[in-house]
Design goal:
mainly beta
Length: 346
């Protein structure tokens, strides 16, 4: 009897201790409890916080995750932690703690599966995101994967090691000093069914100025890259499918402000590998495009490096694989000299 009484006492004590454990906050409650900022990080008081996703997939249903200034959302790894979203619009959103700016928001080491809608971005076009970092992230979305295009440009949108698949559109980004490194996307069919071409100039649309490096641009239809403003492209890979160089759209479009303007939009292309021979690059408006060599595209993976006309076909230097379509106010420069288009000084 005594032992039974002791057991009951211990059991009641154990149940009491369990009841005393606070209920774990939801992801929305945890993030909303982060210290707030009026607009930006001042380095005077704590702002923001870290939310770590566990391994596995977190189903957030129809409620998006909203990240304020200074918030960091981090998973275990890009394939180990993920978010499933079934609502409308963006699955992960940046929003200000106050004012019209949101800054130093970081999303890394996770995947986003947006069943019916979009991926990561800022839904309010009146806001100005600053210093947004998206790193080691995979996005499988039905709509737009990355959306940062407001009335004013965002500052320092930084993408590093981002993989986008099955999206209707990879990105719509308007930024100053944007950095896009190791982004890979393909506008292939989503889960076995056809996706109609998006009613925009291209699959990835960039506005403002920044850089695109070490990235892979793949697609089944349409223009893969549209860049308005001043962009620096280095060491990228272009692989269009079902591409017709005569009747199909340009694989890349560069556009600048109409001339005459006090400021000339100036973009550069250095080392881009075109898988398809004779891929086309179109220039619109007053853009000046500076290419590393006049025969841009000889870095193609078809053919070798020999200039000997008697060499085997597989060893010969391939013909230039980039065909330029140059507008009346556009210019193509190479090694300090105009090679196509209007003669203009930078």
């Amino acid at each position: 009897m005594k032992k039974r009484t002791q057991f009951i006492v211990l059991l009641l004590a154990a149940l009491a201790s369990l009841a005393a454990v606070p209920v774990t906050k939801t992801i929305w409650e945890e993030i909303s409890s982060f210290p707030k900022s009026d607009q930006v990080i001042h380095g005077v008081v704590p702002v923001g916080g870290l939310y770590e996703l566990p391994a596995g997939e977190l189903d957030i249903g129809n409620t998006p995750i909203v990240l304020p200034t200074g918030a960091r959302l981090k998973g275990k790894h890009v394939g180990a932690s993920g978010i499933k979203y079934s609502g409308e619009g963006l699955a992960i959103r940046t929003a200000p703690s106050g004012g019209n700016s949101v800054s130093f928001t970081t999303i890394e080491d996770l995947y986003v599966y947006s069943v019916n809608a979009d991926g990561i971005g800022c839904p309010d076009k009146t806001l100005v995101p600053e210093n947004v970092v998206i790193k080691n992230v995979s996005l499988n979305v039905k709509g737009t994967a990355l959306q940062f295009h407001g009335e004013d440009p965002a500052y320092f949108i930084n993408l590093d090691s981002v993989y986008i698949l099955n999206a209707a559109k990879a990105g719509d980004i308007y930024t100053v000093n944007g950095s896009i490194n190791r982004i890979q996307f393909c506008n292939a069919d989503r889960q076995g069914r056809e996706v109609a071409p998006f009613a925009t100039p291209a699959f990835l649309c960039l506005y403002g100025h920044g850089s695109v490096t070490n990235s892979r641009l793949e697609g089944n239809w349409g223009t893969l890259l549209y860049a308005y403003g001043s962009w620096d492209l280095r060491s990228n890979y272009n692989e269009p499918y079902r591409f017709n160089p005569t009747s199909g759209p340009a694989q890349m479009i560069f556009e600048g402000r109409p001339q005459p303007q006090a400021h000339v939009d100036y973009s550069t292309v250095d080392r881009i590998m075109f898988l398809q021979p004779r891929a086309s690059v179109e220039l619109r408006g007053g853009i000046v495009l500076d290419v590393a060599t006049p025969d841009l595209g000889r870095e193609s993976n078809t053919g070798g490096t020999s200039t000997d006309p008697n060499a085997r076909p597989e060893d010969r230097l391939p013909p230039p694989s980039a065909v330029f379509k140059v507008g009346k106010d556009a210019t193509v420069m190479s090694q300090g000299k105009r090679i196509l288009g209007k003669d203009r000084v930078r």
